[in-house]
Each structure stands twice: as C-alpha cells, then as structure tokens.
Amino acid sequence: MTTNQFTSTTTSNSEWKFFKCPKPKGSSCGNWQWEDEEYIESFAGELMSSLDAFKNVIADLKSEKDKLKEEIGALKGINQAEMNKVLKMHMFMMISWALFVGFVASSIMK
What we know:
Residues 51-78 form a coiled coil. The protein is mainly alpha-helical.
C-alpha cells in the first residue's frame, strides 16, 4: 500500500512530516506514521532514561541533604559540649586567678 507524505500543522507538532493512507477519512485504511517514528521512539527512550537518571540524582541529593543535616546536628552537639568545657575552664581560671591574687595580697599584708 502506498502512503502520501504530509506536514503537520498543529502547534505541538508543527512542521513534522508524517505518512498516511491517501484515501479519504471514511475509506482510509488507517495507516499513519511519523516520518521519523524510529527516531522519535529512540528520542523518547533517551528522554525517559535521562528522566530516570535525574530522579536518581535527586534521590541521591536528598539522601546527602539528610546526612548533612544529621552531621550538622551532631556538630552542634559537639560545639555545645566544647562550649561547656571552655566555660568550665574559664570559670576555673577565674577562680584560680582570684585565689592567686588573694594569696599574693595576704602575703603582702603580713
């Protein structure tokens, strides 16, 4: 069976070539195919593969984000613990200094 080539005039497929049965709608055999149907199917497959790859990348990024949140939470806990140590050491130094000054002052006054 022979087919005629036509050009699509729809906005979504503007200027794309296709083949169809040359008979009018009522008596047409229904044969219809894009000129580059194999290319379109291949391109669609590549797009789906790319989409799957992007979905995997997004999932990986979400996982990394969650890990980073956990690490930040752990670091905040460490920082708080370190701050407590520093404050205790600061208090110890202040008390030691006060005792030293008191000892020196009492030695001088004797």
